Amino acid sequence: MLLHQLDLTTALRPELLPDETLLFVQDAVGLYEGKYKLPNYQDGHAYLTSHRACYVNNKEPRKHSVALNLKDVERPEFYAGFLKSSPKITLYPKPNKRPNLSLRGAAPSPTFSPTSTPPRRGSPLRPAPPPPPTTAATWICPICSFSNPVPSNFDPAVANANTPLPPCLACGLKPPLVHLIKAAIAANRQAQAETIPSPVVDQDPPRRTESPAPVLSGAPPSEDGPECIKFSFRAGGEKIFYERLKSALVQRKWLLQSAPPIPKPADDGAASSNGLPMRNKVVGIAGLERRGIEQRKNNEVMIGNAFEDLEALMTSAKEIIALAEQFAGQANITGNGNSEASAVLSQSANALGLVTTKDMLGSGSDSLYISELARNIAEFLTDDTTGILKREGGIMSLVDLWAVFNRARGGVELVSPTDFERAAQMWDKLKLPIRLRRFKSGLLVVQGRDRTDDKTVASLLGWLQELHSIPPKTEVPWDWYQYGQGVTAQEVAERFGWSVGVATEELEMAEERGALCRDQGLDGLRFWENWLVKLPPVEGTDALTIHFPQPEYE
Questions:
Q1: Would the pTM count as exceeding 0.90?
Q2: Are residues 46 and 231 in contact, defined by beta-carbon separation less than 8 angstroms?
Q3: Quick check: helix, strand or coil at residue 389?
Q4: What is the pLDDT of residues 240-294, one digit of tens each?
Q5: Tens of pLDDT, residues 141-194
Q6: Which is the most buried residue in 36, 172, 242, 384, by most CB within 10 A?
Q7: Residues 118, 125: contact at Cβ < 8 Å?
Q8: To 5 degrees, how large is the angle CA 462–CA 464–CA 465?
């Protein structure tokens, strides 16, 4: 099968691989295998990345989400749709990635089942096509110009820095990886050009039976061509998806995984006694100038090596993009908000393929943008590397989150407060691990879905119980060992990592539930354990009273 199981993030989006970037998102998409619909894969989102074409189901995303590696695709095909037939994009696999039909019920030899019609007597069977001619791939040693054979198990699509390279049979030196990749690709193209299918004429072919119904695992193999995967677009976006798919197939960014580093020029300097170059340490302004000169030389060598040919450019794409980002950062520092500099940076970002969030969305971009923004915020909050929600004690106000989120985007496509609140309200509908909560005062906060009021009250009471064994900082006129101490909103915020506003709301929530009671005094508002419901009433009285010893005054 071309499709494989897809790992999702906490926000139910495809988990990107290293160096993988998101290119396009479209909703209302279904999947076909051949000309048959795949059950349970007809209502979902299509995510196109630089490495894969992914499908995420809306109802059961963890169970029915699959992906197809672009390195296994030979060519795409576009169908614009007609009448009730929706537009489709077909992905045809490479010859070595097509499934073995004998494993799915097709007979490898020309046999006939009892229900099929036997061929008429005298009609010859269709002979199997001859195997394509193989062209021996060779590479020329750049040292001694000796012609060496390329190993038969060398695959240019998956070769990386860890792939063992054969040494030259004459001088014994290993070739560069790019040199071997170019030779293998050229040999494959020559072999495909020499493969000419021979025409087969059937005098009286047997009649074909009806195609069987699709099975649960997918559609039966087609006798008219190789198995393929189709993305059916029911709400538009197919043209942008197709254009960016073709661009991704041309760029082949999956070849950048484990790419060899760019060689750096040797440092100029006096040679030491053992013959190795010795670098003179220079400090101050002269050292900074020398470091700048060395950096410019390194950039010149890197850019020159990158643009020698296409394969070297692909190998050096990481360093080229990092260098462009470095130039953009320097322009931001020196530009001081210049509109001309901003326009140049925008053009540079477009040239590098750095698209914004709205540029990744298809038709119906308003609702789709809000839902994808909601997933993006959820991933931002639940990211273990940043730990934003955990650092805030598991709960933070929506305004604070909006400020932190926009600050983390680096000034690129800032989110308005209205869109941010609309995205937060989508968390329950999308079944994400965080939720939006509104307090009685109208304050909107963000917290984990597993966080409840009962757990919050238990945490507050647990801390107040600990204060029974901690003496107060000043002498108090009550039995602190029995009754504990009162706490302010500021103390609660410092204890649990909340903001003061969130701490006040949580204390009032616990007060409404009867777990706490308030004490308004000269030193401010404090909250205590609710002893009014814990102590028994005093004999001879109807009301519940608590007797605290009065302080003595001189």
A1: no
A2: yes
A3: helix
A4: 999 999 999 988 888 876 555 555 545 444 444 444 444 555 567 777 778 888 8
A5: 877 777 888 887 788 777 777 788 888 887 778 888 887 888 888 877 777 666
A6: 242
A7: no
A8: 65
Res 304: pLDDT: 66
Asked if residue 41 lies in contact with residue 29, where contact means CB atoms within 8 angstroms, the answer is no
Residue 69: partners with Cβ closer than 8 Å, 6 or more residues away: 4, 51, 52, 254
What angle do helix axes 500-512 and 453-466 make, rounded to 10 degrees? 100
Contact in structure between 64 and 57 (CB atoms under 8 Å): yes
Strand order from edge to edge, sheet including 444-448: 395-397, 444-448, 434-438
Report the pLDDT value the prediction gives residue 14, as an integer from 0 to 100.
92
In contact, 372 and 426? CB cutoff 8 Å: no
Question: What residues pair up with 78 in beta bridges, in sequence order?
Answer: 89
Q: Under DSSP, is residue 385 helix (H, G, I), strand (E, B) or coil?
A: coil
Q: Which of 495, 476, 475 is nearest to 487 (CA)?
A: 495
Q: What domains sit in the chain, N to C, each tagged with a CATH number?
A: 4-99+221-256 (2.30.29.30), 138-194 (no CATH), 284-351 (no CATH), 364-448 (1.10.10.10), 453-529 (1.10.10.10)
pLDDT digits (tens, 9 = 90+) for 359-371: 677 665 678 889 9
374 Cβ neighbours under 8 A, 6+ residues apart: 11, 423, 424, 426, 427, 430, 432
Q: Is 17 a residue whose pLDDT tops 80?
A: yes
Judged by DSSP in three states, 376 sits in helix
Helix axes 284-306, 317-335, angle to 10 degrees: 140
Task: Name residue, tokens 């698209």.
Answer: 355
The H-assigned helical ranges of 316-393 are 317-335, 339-351, 365-382, 388-391
Residue 460 and residue 511 in contact, taking contact as beta carbons nearer than 8 Å: no
Cβ neighbors of 50 (< 8 A, separation 6 or more) are: 19, 20, 21, 23, 70, 248, 251, 253, 254
Q: pLDDT digits over 73-126, tens only?
A: 999 999 988 888 899 999 999 887 665 543 344 434 444 344 444 444 444 444
The answer for residues whose C-beta is within 8 angstroms of residue 276's C-beta and 6 or more apart is: none
Q: Please list the helix, strand and coil fractions of the chain in percent, rounded to the nearest 5, in that order.
A: 35, 15, 50
User: What's phi and psi for 529, nearest 5 deg?
Assistant: -60, 145
Integer Cα distance of 268 and 160 in angstroms: 31
Determine the pLDDT at residue 467. 84
Place of tokens 């295998």: 33
Decide if pLDDT at 67 tops 90.
Answer: yes
Q: Could you tell me the pLDDT band of residue 524, with boundaries at 50, 70 and 90?
A: confident
Q: Strand 4-5 relative to strand 65-69: parallel, antiparallel, unpaired?
A: antiparallel
Angle between helices 417-424 and 365-382 (to 10 degrees): 80
Q: Say if residue 500's pLDDT is above 60.
A: yes
Residue 533 φ then ψ, to 5°:
-105, -5
